[in-house]
Each structure stands twice: as C-alpha cells, then as structure tokens.
Amino acid sequence: MRxxxxxxxxxxxxxxxxxxxxxxxxxxxxxxxxxxxNMVTRTVAPTKKIVVVMGATGSGKSxxxxxxxxxxxxxxxxxxxxxxxxxxxxxxxxxxSMPERRGVVHHLLGEFSPSESHPEFSxxxxxxxxxxxxxxxxxxxxxxxIVGGSNSFIYALLSNRFNxxxxxxxxxxxxxxxxxxxxxxxxxxxxxxxxxxxxQYLFKRVDEMMNSGMFExxxxxxxxxxxxxxxxxxxNNSGLRKAIGVPEMEGYFRKYKNCAxxxxxxxxxxxxxxxxxxxxxxxxxxxxxxxxxxxxxxWDLQRVDATEAFRASMSPENSKIPATEIWERQVVxxxxxxxxHFLLE
Length: 345
What we know:
Elements: E1 3-10, E2 15-21, E3 26-30, E4 49-54, H1 61-71, E5 75-79, H2 98-101, E6 106-107, H3 123-139, E7 143-147, H4 151-158, E8 185-192, H5 195-225, H6 246-255, H7 262-296, E9 301-305, H8 307-314, H9 323-343
Parallel strand pairs: 4-7, 4-8, 5-6, 5-7, 8-9
Antiparallel strand pairs: 1-2, 2-3
Helix pairs in contact: 3-4, 5-6, 5-7, 6-7, 8-9
Protein name: Adenylate isopentenyltransferase
Family: Belongs to the IPP transferase family.
Keywords: ATP-binding, Cytokinin biosynthesis, Nucleotide-binding, Transferase
C-alpha cells in the first residue's frame, strides 16, 4: 500500500495534509499535523487549490461533479451558473434537484433574490461571495468544486487582476487581455461534447423539460409576476427574466388566450419551443467560444470528451456498451486521475 503526504492548503498559521490510499481510493485530511517535510514558508504563488468543471450547457458538468464529490474527493460544489444563482424557476433554469445532489452541499444555487437596490447578481458579486465560500470549504478540509457554464463568472472569480468594466470575451478585444494570473491553484476540467451530438441532446432536453412541468412552472410565474412591460423589479429584464424559456414562453402566454382555434394555439406553442431550442443552441455555441478563448490565452483546460457517452444515452439500441459504462470509462475515470494528480502535486 502506497501512502502519500502532501501539502493541500498552507497559510502562515497552519498547513493541512492530505492522505491518499490506493486501497480505499479516497482522500482523507489530517488534522493539526506536527511537521511538514520540505515545506516552503514564503511564496507569492496562490496556495488555495480548487477544481473548476467547465463546459457548454447540457454537457454533463453537474453529473461529473457529483461523481467526483461522492466517490473520490470530499468536496462541496459552488454553482457558477449566473441564472441558477437566482431563486425560483427550478425546472426552467435546469437546477440540479435534491435527489440528484446525493447529499453533496451546493453553494450559490437558488440563493439570490433581486431587490430595488440589488437587481442583479454581478460578476463582482460572484467574485466576492464565491471567494468567501471557497475559504469556508477549505477551512472545513474539503475540496471546492466550481461548477457551471457562465465563463464570465468563472473569469471574474479566478482572475488575479479583474476589471469589472472590461469584457475580455468581447470578440473585438485582443486575446492577450485575458489575464493568465489566477488567484487560486486551479485544476480545470473541460467536459466537451461534439456540437452535432450536443445539439441533438439539447433539443431533446427541452422537450423533456416541457413535459416535466416547465410549461406549468412558467404559467404560474407569469400569473404571479406579470409580463415584462412593468416597471416593477420583479417584472424587468433581469435575473430570471433572462433565463432561456422565459421570454420565449412570455410571447405564447401573451397571445394564446386570443387564439381562435386550437390549431393556432398549438402553432404558437410550437414556435415558442422551437425558439427555446435555437436559443439554447446559440448559448452553447457562445459558451464554447469563451472556453476556446480562455484556452488560447493560456489557461490549462484539461479536455474530457463525453461525446460517445451522449451518443449511447440517446440511441442505446445502436451502442454495444451501455452509456453509463462509457461515461465511467471516458469521463469519470480520466477526470478522477486529473484531479488526483493535481492534489498530489
């Protein structure tokens, strides 16, 4: 049996050590170690270690993070999806459900409610609040997993020199404006799915969401909050109003009562769903462009290809190997090895 001791987090006051056992395939934190061999006491490099799970919408980020947190590394998850930070519309915003979380603590998921003085949760808000959560998680000897598709929030959190007034993802801005100096020691896992396969899955997912209560959830939302032409905070174009599905279905709910026939109502519904699918596809495309920009700028993103697992899950009759087995072999195990190597550095 091989045992490894390493410095996981060190500060001027204390150092925490991590023990890995091949037999148990898990990490355990030692409390109050009395010695650390070859410990460097003075350094300007970041010392807090975090794992960042990135990828386009629908690529399996949440599923992978739960696999890592429940099976390999004692972790807590910090949501970095800017829409999912807001409270409400759990189906429409595709928040991970309580059963799917499998007991893993999630932070900044459905916690924010807009007000007159604070209508938006900004990248600067996320930078500050997520930093506090990271420190708290590490102080409790757990590994922070940053999980979500809002790359602007991820950049705001990680960039050592963050300028709220500068959009480094604006296409006209040069790539060298992207900061390569980070506030943390980061392990980046990029869950990737080839575009045609991902688009097929996203369209299927929209249909499943509509059949799982998204329509009724939005109907109730508009009955309670009204449409977006009001001056009220709850009715302006911020927060949940920006979630894909809300503006598209608002057009339907505005008009359907005036439909003369069931066929006309059905046509309006189909148009709204088609628009949701197209806007979801465009969102994934924009997210992928931002990920490629970060990689081009020098961010060390470790790509994990989930394409075959998605193909098998959508067409099980055409796959000789179950999708769950492909996911395990091609996504979970490679990701576990990446994180393990990172923690043992």
